[in-house]
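I am writing to request your help with a piece of structural work I have in hand. What I wish to show you is a protein chain and, alongside it, a tokenised description of its three-dimensional fold. Could you please explain, in whatever detail you think fit, how the structure tokens follow from the sequence? You will find the record immediately after this paragraph.
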Amino acid sequence: MKYTTLRDLTIEDFIILNSIVDTFKDDDIKVRAELIKHFKLEKYPMNEADDILLQINEVLTHKPNFIQRFELDGVEYGFIPNLDNITTAEWVDIENYQQSVEYADRLVSILYRPVKRSLKFWNKSYYNIEEYTGTNTKLRQAPLEVYSGAMVFFYHLGKTLLSHIDTSIKNLTQRQKEEVLNLVQKHTSNKSLDGIV
């Protein structure tokens, strides 16, 4: 048993690993024992089990690649092809499930769905995915790199958007900045967005 890339771990492994570390954060011996149980290392010699746990720890430091499409159990899954066209239901569920690693599989089931049609044209691949009908846990066995790569993708997207917003704000006149600030203050004072969606 070798763990060399993020594709060697599953999303379920990551969820359980995080749960173990959170539950027993002050007890390294218990964390180690629970990890040995989860990865079924009980019958391995201690030095081999320790090596495998070190491999897993090392793999978790790897920089993930964004995976646009992957296959699991004979089904091809694709990332949402056009984020501009996500539905309100998708957006609400993404907002809800991105808050905790515990729901990583559900988040991935929103972002990646079975590919319905695929077309290759001029060395570029196009595809459609199935409509969103709610989350599921089918992707618990997907490679961890699918989840990690998507999170890094959104992190970089957020940084890029913030950079563009910053540039746009710098180009505003002082009067426009004051108008924007007043508008934001007017709409946020004594109001909450909780429960609107």
